Amino acid sequence: MRMTDGELKKYRFPATLSNQTRWFGLYLDELLPTATCLGWGLLTGKQLFGLGAAILSFWAVKRLKKGRGSTWLRDLIYWYMPTAILRGVFHSVPDSCFRQWVK
């Protein structure tokens, strides 16, 4: 059973399976630190410093990812950040210190 062109128009097919949504041209993991720095700079009246911090944070995230996906950065945060900080973020997985390697 084949679908006609009219039936296919109601579905959205991404270019790749790992196609992520972008906000203002940035992926979400790049946007959050950048927007936080920009917002902080605007609220404190230090716009130039906030812009510089936003550029540095964007560059640092891009450098950390090095062409890898956002899931790699999330996994890096899970393994190396303290559990007390991430307790509200990772609900369904155990603390990284209690995980065991599965062969």
Automatic annotation (TrEMBL):
Its main location: membrane. The chain crosses the membrane at residues 38-61. InterPro entries: Pilus_assmbly_TraL, T4SS_TraL. The keyword GTP-binding does not apply. The gene is traL. It comes from the Bacteria. Membrane protein involved in F pilin formation. Signal peptide: none annotated. This is Protein TraL. Pfam families: TraL.
